[in-house]
Amino acid sequence: MKHTYDYKSCKLYGREAFLGGNTIRLCCNGHLAKEPEFFKFYFNDLGNGINEFKERTNKLFKMHSKNLPGPCEGCPFLIDQIGQTDFLEEKLLKHISFTIGFNGDVCNIACIYCKNQHKKYTKSTNPSLLNLVKQVVESYGDTALPNLRFASGEFFFRKDAEEILEYLLPKKCKMSVVTNATIYSENFMEMIKTYRVHFINTSLDCGTKETHIKVKKRNLFDTVIKNLITYSNAGLEIRLKYIFLPGINDNEDDLINFLIFAKSISAKIEISTDIQNRKNNLPSHTMDAIFWLYQKSQENNLSVQFRQEGFSEYDRSKIKNMNMLIAQI
Ligand code: SF4
Ligand code: SF4
Fold this sequence. Notes:
Elements: E1 7-9, E2 16-20, E3 23-25, E4 40-42, H1 46-65, E5 79-81, E6 95-98, H2 129-140, E7 147-150, H3 161-168, E8 175-178, H4 186-193, E9 197-203, H5 209-216, H6 221-233, E10 237-244, H7 252-264, E11 268-273, H8 284-299, E12 304-306, H9 313-321
Parallel strand pairs: 2-6, 6-7, 7-8, 8-9, 9-10, 10-11, 11-12
Antiparallel strand pairs: 1-5, 2-3, 3-4
Helix pairs in contact: 2-3, 7-8
The protein binds iron/sulfur cluster (2 copies).
Protein backbone atom coordinates (compact mmCIF):
# COMPACT_ATOMS: atom_id res chain seq x y z
CA MET A 1 0.00 0.00 0.00
CA LYS A 2 1.31 3.44 -0.88
CA HIS A 3 1.70 5.81 2.05
CA THR A 4 1.44 9.56 1.86
CA TYR A 5 3.68 11.36 4.31
CA ASP A 6 2.32 14.72 5.29
CA TYR A 7 5.21 16.25 7.14
CA LYS A 8 8.61 15.65 8.68
CA SER A 9 9.43 15.78 12.33
CA CYS A 10 12.39 15.82 14.71
CA LYS A 11 12.08 16.17 18.46
CA LEU A 12 15.73 17.08 18.94
CA TYR A 13 15.83 20.77 18.21
CA GLY A 14 14.30 23.96 19.47
CA ARG A 15 14.08 23.22 23.19
CA GLU A 16 17.79 23.34 23.97
CA ALA A 17 20.49 25.79 22.83
CA PHE A 18 24.01 24.35 23.07
CA LEU A 19 26.50 27.11 23.80
CA GLY A 20 30.18 26.29 23.37
CA GLY A 21 32.35 29.38 23.77
CA ASN A 22 31.22 31.75 21.04
CA THR A 23 29.20 29.18 19.07
CA ILE A 24 25.64 27.94 19.38
CA ARG A 25 24.38 24.57 18.14
CA LEU A 26 20.74 23.83 17.37
CA CYS A 27 21.03 20.13 18.08
CA CYS A 28 23.62 17.50 18.91
CA ASN A 29 23.38 15.67 15.60
CA GLY A 30 23.77 18.44 13.02
CA HIS A 31 26.98 16.76 11.78
CA LEU A 32 24.80 13.92 10.41
CA ALA A 33 22.80 16.28 8.22
CA LYS A 34 23.46 17.54 4.70
CA GLU A 35 24.23 21.08 5.83
CA PRO A 36 26.07 20.82 9.17
CA GLU A 37 26.90 24.54 9.16
CA PHE A 38 23.20 25.34 9.56
CA PHE A 39 23.25 23.75 13.01
CA LYS A 40 26.29 25.51 14.41
CA PHE A 41 26.93 29.24 14.12
CA TYR A 42 29.03 31.96 15.73
CA PHE A 43 27.65 34.76 17.86
CA ASN A 44 29.14 37.90 19.40
CA ASP A 45 26.26 39.00 21.51
CA LEU A 46 24.12 36.58 23.52
CA GLY A 47 20.82 38.32 22.70
CA ASN A 48 21.50 38.16 18.95
CA GLY A 49 22.73 34.59 19.26
CA ILE A 50 19.51 33.47 20.97
CA ASN A 51 17.44 35.37 18.38
CA GLU A 52 19.26 33.63 15.56
CA PHE A 53 18.74 30.29 17.35
CA LYS A 54 14.99 30.97 17.41
CA GLU A 55 14.90 32.12 13.78
CA ARG A 56 16.70 28.98 12.59
CA THR A 57 14.42 26.81 14.72
CA ASN A 58 11.32 28.40 13.18
CA LYS A 59 12.78 28.08 9.68
CA LEU A 60 13.40 24.36 10.20
CA PHE A 61 9.96 23.88 11.68
CA LYS A 62 8.29 25.56 8.68
CA MET A 63 10.26 23.42 6.20
CA HIS A 64 9.49 20.20 8.09
CA SER A 65 5.80 21.16 8.28
CA LYS A 66 5.83 21.37 4.46
CA ASN A 67 7.42 17.92 4.28
CA LEU A 68 10.80 19.35 3.23
CA PRO A 69 13.96 18.05 4.94
CA GLY A 70 15.88 21.31 4.41
CA PRO A 71 19.38 21.18 5.94
CA CYS A 72 18.39 18.06 7.94
CA GLU A 73 18.47 15.90 4.81
CA GLY A 74 20.24 12.63 5.51
CA CYS A 75 19.92 12.80 9.30
CA PRO A 76 18.43 9.57 10.74
CA PHE A 77 16.54 11.55 13.38
CA LEU A 78 14.29 13.18 10.79
CA ILE A 79 11.10 11.15 10.72
CA ASP A 80 8.25 11.03 8.19
CA GLN A 81 4.87 11.58 9.83
CA ILE A 82 1.26 11.35 8.77
CA GLY A 83 -1.58 13.51 9.95
CA GLN A 84 -1.58 16.53 12.20
CA THR A 85 1.78 18.33 12.32
CA ASP A 86 3.85 19.04 15.45
CA PHE A 87 3.18 22.24 17.33
CA LEU A 88 5.56 25.18 17.26
CA GLU A 89 5.04 25.54 21.04
CA GLU A 90 6.91 22.26 21.45
CA LYS A 91 9.95 24.04 20.04
CA LEU A 92 10.13 26.76 22.67
CA LEU A 93 13.56 27.23 24.19
CA LYS A 94 13.59 25.63 27.65
CA HIS A 95 17.25 24.75 28.28
CA ILE A 96 20.58 26.46 27.78
CA SER A 97 23.50 24.03 27.77
CA PHE A 98 27.07 25.09 28.31
CA THR A 99 29.25 22.64 26.41
CA ILE A 100 32.97 22.53 25.53
CA GLY A 101 34.56 25.81 24.41
CA PHE A 102 35.00 27.99 27.49
CA ASN A 103 38.12 29.25 29.15
CA GLY A 104 39.19 26.68 31.74
CA ASP A 105 37.20 23.67 30.46
CA VAL A 106 38.99 20.72 31.97
CA CYS A 107 38.56 17.16 33.22
CA ASN A 108 40.32 15.21 35.97
CA ILE A 109 39.94 11.72 34.49
CA ALA A 110 40.58 10.11 31.11
CA CYS A 111 37.69 7.95 29.88
CA ILE A 112 38.90 5.75 27.03
CA TYR A 113 36.01 6.83 24.79
CA CYS A 114 36.52 10.59 25.32
CA LYS A 115 38.43 12.34 22.59
CA ASN A 116 39.23 15.28 24.88
CA GLN A 117 40.21 13.27 27.98
CA HIS A 118 41.83 14.93 30.97
CA LYS A 119 43.78 17.68 29.28
CA LYS A 120 42.75 21.29 29.49
CA TYR A 121 40.45 21.76 26.52
CA THR A 122 40.56 25.46 25.85
CA LYS A 123 42.83 28.47 25.91
CA SER A 124 42.54 31.49 28.16
CA THR A 125 41.42 33.51 25.13
CA ASN A 126 38.12 31.58 24.97
CA PRO A 127 35.02 33.18 26.53
CA SER A 128 34.56 32.86 30.29
CA LEU A 129 31.82 30.46 31.44
CA LEU A 130 31.04 32.57 34.50
CA ASN A 131 30.55 35.69 32.35
CA LEU A 132 28.21 33.90 29.97
CA VAL A 133 26.20 32.38 32.84
CA LYS A 134 25.82 35.89 34.27
CA GLN A 135 24.74 37.23 30.85
CA VAL A 136 22.10 34.51 30.54
CA VAL A 137 20.72 35.07 34.03
CA GLU A 138 20.74 38.87 33.69
CA SER A 139 19.23 38.96 30.20
CA TYR A 140 16.31 36.66 31.04
CA GLY A 141 15.63 37.81 34.59
CA ASP A 142 14.44 35.38 37.23
CA THR A 143 11.00 34.59 35.88
CA ALA A 144 11.63 33.60 32.26
CA LEU A 145 14.98 31.92 32.84
CA PRO A 146 15.54 28.67 30.92
CA ASN A 147 17.06 25.72 32.78
CA LEU A 148 20.85 25.80 32.77
CA ARG A 149 22.77 22.67 31.93
CA PHE A 150 26.50 22.31 32.53
CA ALA A 151 28.12 19.77 30.27
CA SER A 152 31.67 20.91 29.58
CA GLY A 153 34.39 18.52 30.76
CA GLU A 154 34.15 17.92 34.50
CA PHE A 155 32.24 20.91 35.86
CA PHE A 156 33.35 20.47 39.50
CA PHE A 157 37.04 20.35 38.53
CA ARG A 158 37.03 23.76 36.84
CA LYS A 159 38.53 26.64 38.81
CA ASP A 160 35.42 28.79 38.56
CA ALA A 161 32.90 26.06 39.49
CA GLU A 162 32.40 27.22 43.08
CA GLU A 163 32.17 30.86 41.97
CA ILE A 164 29.45 29.91 39.46
CA LEU A 165 27.52 27.94 42.10
CA GLU A 166 27.82 30.80 44.61
CA TYR A 167 26.50 33.18 41.96
CA LEU A 168 23.55 30.87 41.14
CA LEU A 169 22.60 29.91 44.71
CA PRO A 170 20.53 33.05 45.47
CA LYS A 171 18.96 33.10 41.96
CA LYS A 172 15.85 31.22 40.92
CA CYS A 173 17.15 29.25 37.95
CA LYS A 174 17.04 25.48 37.75
CA MET A 175 20.03 23.45 36.64
CA SER A 176 21.41 20.03 35.75
CA VAL A 177 25.00 18.87 35.51
CA VAL A 178 26.91 16.24 33.57
CA THR A 179 29.55 15.03 36.02
CA ASN A 180 31.80 12.06 36.54
CA ALA A 181 30.90 12.32 40.27
CA THR A 182 34.52 12.09 41.40
CA ILE A 183 34.38 15.47 43.20
CA TYR A 184 31.98 16.34 46.00
CA SER A 185 30.86 19.98 46.21
CA GLU A 186 29.31 21.49 49.33
CA ASN A 187 27.89 24.40 47.31
CA PHE A 188 26.26 21.93 44.96
CA MET A 189 24.75 20.13 47.94
CA GLU A 190 23.31 23.50 49.06
CA MET A 191 21.86 23.89 45.57
CA ILE A 192 20.29 20.42 45.75
CA LYS A 193 18.61 21.44 49.00
CA THR A 194 16.89 24.31 47.18
CA TYR A 195 15.21 21.70 44.87
CA ARG A 196 16.51 23.58 41.83
CA VAL A 197 18.79 20.82 40.55
CA HIS A 198 16.80 18.64 38.17
CA PHE A 199 19.28 15.78 37.95
CA ILE A 200 22.88 14.81 37.30
CA ASN A 201 24.09 12.58 34.44
CA THR A 202 27.00 10.31 35.27
CA SER A 203 28.56 7.77 32.92
CA LEU A 204 29.33 4.95 35.33
CA ASP A 205 29.78 2.34 32.57
CA CYS A 206 30.47 -0.54 34.96
CA GLY A 207 29.73 -2.15 38.29
CA THR A 208 33.21 -3.06 39.49
CA LYS A 209 36.25 -1.12 40.57
CA GLU A 210 38.53 -3.01 38.16
CA THR A 211 36.49 -2.03 35.11
CA HIS A 212 36.07 1.54 36.36
CA ILE A 213 39.87 1.87 36.48
CA LYS A 214 40.13 0.38 32.99
CA VAL A 215 37.59 2.80 31.54
CA LYS A 216 38.42 5.98 33.49
CA LYS A 217 42.16 5.46 34.00
CA ARG A 218 41.86 6.59 37.63
CA ASN A 219 41.29 4.73 40.91
CA LEU A 220 38.15 6.64 41.96
CA PHE A 221 35.33 4.07 41.87
CA ASP A 222 34.67 4.13 45.65
CA THR A 223 34.60 7.95 45.66
CA VAL A 224 32.12 8.01 42.77
CA ILE A 225 29.79 5.51 44.46
CA LYS A 226 29.98 7.42 47.78
CA ASN A 227 29.21 10.79 46.12
CA LEU A 228 26.29 9.37 44.13
CA ILE A 229 24.79 7.85 47.28
CA THR A 230 25.22 11.16 49.16
CA TYR A 231 23.53 13.17 46.40
CA SER A 232 20.78 10.59 46.01
CA ASN A 233 20.10 10.58 49.77
CA ALA A 234 19.64 14.36 49.52
CA GLY A 235 16.83 13.73 47.02
CA LEU A 236 18.66 14.30 43.75
CA GLU A 237 17.64 12.34 40.64
CA ILE A 238 20.62 10.41 39.31
CA ARG A 239 20.83 9.41 35.64
CA LEU A 240 23.41 6.69 35.14
CA LYS A 241 24.79 6.08 31.72
CA TYR A 242 26.24 2.75 30.62
CA ILE A 243 28.43 3.23 27.55
CA PHE A 244 28.94 -0.31 26.26
CA LEU A 245 32.52 -1.12 25.28
CA PRO A 246 32.93 -4.57 23.72
CA GLY A 247 35.13 -6.90 25.77
CA ILE A 248 35.53 -4.37 28.59
CA ASN A 249 32.22 -3.86 30.40
CA ASP A 250 29.79 -6.31 28.74
CA ASN A 251 30.41 -9.03 31.32
CA GLU A 252 28.09 -10.48 33.95
CA ASP A 253 29.90 -9.06 37.02
CA ASP A 254 29.74 -5.48 35.80
CA LEU A 255 26.16 -5.70 34.61
CA ILE A 256 24.79 -7.31 37.78
CA ASN A 257 26.63 -4.96 40.13
CA PHE A 258 25.62 -1.94 38.08
CA LEU A 259 21.99 -3.00 38.19
CA ILE A 260 22.07 -3.58 41.96
CA PHE A 261 23.63 -0.15 42.52
CA ALA A 262 21.23 1.62 40.13
CA LYS A 263 18.32 0.05 41.96
CA SER A 264 19.67 1.05 45.38
CA ILE A 265 19.59 4.74 44.38
CA SER A 266 16.54 4.49 42.05
CA ALA A 267 18.64 5.77 39.18
CA LYS A 268 17.36 6.34 35.67
CA ILE A 269 19.43 4.33 33.22
CA GLU A 270 20.68 5.41 29.80
CA ILE A 271 22.17 2.77 27.52
CA SER A 272 24.68 3.95 24.96
CA THR A 273 27.87 3.01 23.20
CA ASP A 274 31.01 4.74 22.01
CA ILE A 275 29.87 7.41 19.56
CA GLN A 276 33.28 7.45 17.85
CA ASN A 277 32.64 3.84 16.81
CA ARG A 278 29.13 4.38 15.54
CA LYS A 279 29.94 3.20 12.01
CA ASN A 280 30.82 -0.28 13.31
CA ASN A 281 28.26 -2.89 14.38
CA LEU A 282 28.64 -4.19 17.92
CA PRO A 283 29.54 -7.86 18.45
CA SER A 284 26.55 -10.10 19.17
CA HIS A 285 27.61 -10.78 22.78
CA THR A 286 27.64 -7.01 23.44
CA MET A 287 24.17 -6.65 21.92
CA ASP A 288 23.03 -9.55 24.15
CA ALA A 289 24.44 -7.73 27.18
CA ILE A 290 22.63 -4.54 26.13
CA PHE A 291 19.30 -6.35 25.81
CA TRP A 292 19.90 -8.08 29.15
CA LEU A 293 20.45 -4.74 30.91
CA TYR A 294 17.41 -3.23 29.22
CA GLN A 295 15.14 -6.11 30.18
CA LYS A 296 16.42 -6.47 33.77
CA SER A 297 16.06 -2.71 34.31
CA GLN A 298 12.44 -2.92 33.22
CA GLU A 299 11.78 -5.97 35.37
CA ASN A 300 13.17 -4.02 38.34
CA ASN A 301 10.92 -1.03 37.55
CA LEU A 302 13.85 1.21 36.67
CA SER A 303 13.44 3.83 33.98
CA VAL A 304 15.67 2.84 31.05
CA GLN A 305 16.28 4.49 27.69
CA PHE A 306 18.59 4.15 24.72
CA ARG A 307 20.76 6.95 23.40
CA GLN A 308 20.61 6.25 19.69
CA GLU A 309 23.44 8.34 18.39
CA GLY A 310 26.24 5.91 19.34
CA PHE A 311 24.74 2.90 17.56
CA SER A 312 25.27 1.94 13.92
CA GLU A 313 22.23 1.95 11.66
CA TYR A 314 22.16 -1.85 11.70
CA ASP A 315 22.26 -2.02 15.52
CA ARG A 316 19.56 0.65 15.74
CA SER A 317 17.34 -1.46 13.51
CA LYS A 318 18.00 -4.51 15.74
CA ILE A 319 16.92 -2.51 18.78
CA LYS A 320 13.81 -1.30 16.96
CA ASN A 321 12.99 -4.81 15.81
CA MET A 322 12.97 -5.94 19.39
CA ASN A 323 10.18 -3.48 19.94
CA MET A 324 12.12 -1.50 22.47
CA LEU A 325 11.51 2.09 23.26
CA ILE A 326 14.09 4.30 21.61
CA ALA A 327 14.01 7.65 23.26
CA GLN A 328 16.13 10.85 23.54
CA ILE A 329 16.66 12.95 26.78
S1 SF4 B 1 16.85 15.99 12.03
FE1 SF4 B 1 18.95 15.67 12.74
S2 SF4 B 1 20.09 17.47 12.10
FE2 SF4 B 1 17.90 17.99 11.95
S3 SF4 B 1 17.43 18.93 13.92
FE3 SF4 B 1 16.95 16.77 14.11
S4 SF4 B 1 18.79 15.82 14.97
FE4 SF4 B 1 19.36 17.84 14.21
S1 SF4 C 1 34.42 12.49 32.44
FE1 SF4 C 1 33.59 13.30 30.52
S2 SF4 C 1 35.03 14.90 29.90
FE2 SF4 C 1 36.06 13.65 31.45
S3 SF4 C 1 37.24 12.15 30.28
FE3 SF4 C 1 35.26 11.23 30.81
S4 SF4 C 1 33.92 11.66 29.04
FE4 SF4 C 1 35.70 13.03 28.89
